[in-house]
Amino acid sequence: MKTIKRALISVYHKEKLDVVACALHELEVEIYSTGGSWDYISGLDIPVKAVDRLTGYPAILGGRVKTLHPKVFGGILARRDHPADLNELADYDIPLFDLVVVDLYPFEETAASGAPEQEVIEKIDIGGISLIRAAAKNHKDVLVVSTKDQYPALLEILTQKKGLSTLDERKRFAAEAFKTTSHYDIAILNYFNGTRQLRYGENPHQRGRYLGLPDSLPKQLHGKELSYNNLLDVEAAVELIHDFKEPTVAIIKHNNVCGCASDSDLLQAWNKAYAADPLSAFGGVIVANRPIDAHTAEAINTLFFEVLMATDFSKEALDILCTKKNRILLAFSHTELPKEKYRSLLHGMLIQDRDMAMEGIENFHFCTLRQPQSEQIEDLIFANKLVKHSKSNAIVLVKDKMLLASGVGQTSRIDALKQAIAKAGQFGFSLSGAVMASDAFFPFPDCVETAHLAGITAIIQPGGSVRDQESVDYCNAHHIAMVCTGIRHFKH
What we know:
This protein is α/β, with parallel strands linked by helices. It has 19 helices and 23 strands.
């Protein structure tokens, strides 16, 4: 247990500080303070010592430097069980601090208010964040309070435990302190990297922001500001098209592929991609891995879409496409994608490697008596790329390097397949001779049976089910080719 005998208080927000100061005074704790905090506590008729009397230096540079002094930090960082530390404090007449109550300048609020840059810069706290980190580092001996939200917990220690704190308590306060400083530093980083205020988040009642390097986004050539949902689809489009080398056009809707085709003629690739699902293409995000020429632009121009991305646009194509003022046109380059993916989770974050795996024929395990023909192998590779970028559970049906239909985001694999078959039928596509890709293994042979009855002749899947052999046996009995890759592509 540690007793609080001396406290340092330097806060921007004064709410509830009177209660804390009074509780410390009741315990006869010696209080040191700075600037406005000293004025506030003095106004309560509570004895308080000025830090500048301790250091021998007044606040300088317009208040930029107040506490950055060995007589302050020495009293915080000194290790009580190190005689050498205590001897040095005695040599230089430095008092020990047992409690540090410091909050930070409101940087985020100032930046969000649209204040001038210099005003925002002045709200970058230097002394405060240094005091918090020093006290948190030495939590073995010092209790640190980094936000007024911790005042109730502090008051419990002061009033119910007479200023005595345990190591576990000090460690919890220290963890909160480092959380405060980390959040603060990230906010500053985002400000300098560029924070884009979006019109709204996923829905109009939600606020939205983009935090990141401005040049990490594709170059906008025309149209309204990108929305939160646009950006999500743009990322999905970039990740998908990154896996294709030959001329390819894809249409993204709600992060899923609803149309995609590869063809040596980009216009034909567009026509095939659009044909896969004209209904879903409405209001979608289109991506091409080649420059858009005038003929392709004329074909695309007939559709209402949110975003069109390509490696470039001819002048004639821009003239055609820019006739709609809100239509977003983006130019992107084939740059390397980040190696990690991040997702917030409750009060934490999940980090994983980006799914960079892309299986080719060298990864195929031909597990059936019948092997796929060369054209089928090309379709299987094409389908596997698409299913990798579809929400699980996912099934993709492909023929002649054209997406015929997909079933995505289903809670069972057979339902995903049934959805895909129904959609193919809705738009008049025959599945005879088509191939099927699954993002994960088949837990039962019902998928291969259903696919066979619909006309599917070749299948690609990861494999790995304890009942794989049942699916292989069905394929062998009905002359279906199946390959396993050993790589699952869940996407949630």
